[in-house]
Amino acid sequence: MLITKLLNVFSHLFDSKSEHYFIVEELDNGIETTEAKIENESRKITLNKQEALVSLADLKRPFVPINNLVLALSTKNATTIQSSINLRRANNDEPIGEESLDSMVFKSFWEFLNRYRAFAANKMGISDSEIVLANIEIVDIELDRYKVFNPLGFKGKNLTLTLRGTFVPRDILRVMERVRGWSNNLVVMEGLSIVSKALPNTKDYVIYPQTKTTSVFSLGEENMHHKDFPWGTSFIVENIAKNLSVDYDVSEAILKRYVVDGFSKKVNRIVEASIRESLEGLAKVLPHNLRGGDYHFRLNVGQINSVSFRNWLESKDYNIDIRDTNPHKNYDATLVYLTQNYSLPHYQFLNQLLKRRSKWLITNL
User: Fold this and answer.
1) pTM to 2 decimal places
2) What is the pLDDT of residues 286-307, one digit of tens each?
3) Which among 204, 206, 207 has a CA at the least distance from the CA of 231?
4) Can you tell me whether residue 145 is helix, strand or coil?
5) Could you say which architecture CATH assigns to the domain 201-306?
6) What is the distance between the alpha carbons of residues 159 and 199, in angstroms, rounded to a whole number?
7) What does the pLDDT look like over 151-199, one tens digit per residue?
8) Which terminus, N or C, of the chain has the lesser number of Cβ atoms within 10 Å?
9) Three-class SS state of 150
10) What ranges do the domains of the chain cover?
């Protein structure tokens, strides 16, 4: 209570034209938190305090007032799916009324649940009774293939609502309840699913290696998790260690220096050969249909990226200030979570209908 009062007293010290974020990223090797600020008018993004934690239970409330708290969870603790639901209207010559629209929103909601609830439970390795719908929202609307913000009063045969929903295991509810009061807005998501959707130039798949595992996400009408594979970027470090006869820590330092400054031509060739060999190992575990598909390869090793979200933001005149002692850390995913649009005012009316219909189910699936 005392902390809350102090935060309210000092909140006027923070510029109302900026937004403060607390980003929680659940990785395959632990938890990373980042306190950040976005100054909208100057398009400046500042990443301030970073901290590494062992588990979500170790989370501590930030001292500064937070506008948005983002829980970017792993594929085991969240399933975020974005999918288009097509609804055919029987009376397509009549304008869409509020009662009809409410009915179609309700129908799309139930179709979304029926399609993906079992998939999400199976993917996270839990029973149907342990799965919870953390949130759901409408993110796009089309009427006879024309984009509209609100179809109320319009005529048309086919209404397509694109919904984005996140399922979590019931255990995650305790984390959500503990941190909900820390900010004005709590966002819960499957982190890598949002990263995949945010990448410029849509492809069929996004391949996202982490330290120990590689996650693949499919894009298109259904943006969702495809599969995890037992290959991680630590394999590259281990391969360099083997080829140079050094231990893991030294190999990691070598890779980081290679990314920034490089070595002699001879050492560079050994490092590059080790990276190629390791990537061949990834290719072997990927299914054949992904090897020939059109995909983004998002490799998070130091700053080696075939796709850089940071570079894309800077090309859009964003000024990014990272105040961190680790210059080799990659912040692409963190930047995605910071710049996502978590408020869709042009779909506010339909999301109010959806919220009314889904409210009783959000924590009681």
Assistant:
1) 0.80
2) 665 554 444 445 444 433 335 5
3) 207
4) coil
5) 2-Layer Sandwich (3.30)
6) 27
7) 988 899 999 999 999 999 999 999 999 999 999 899 999 998 888 777 6
8) N
9) coil
10) 1-200+308-365, 201-306
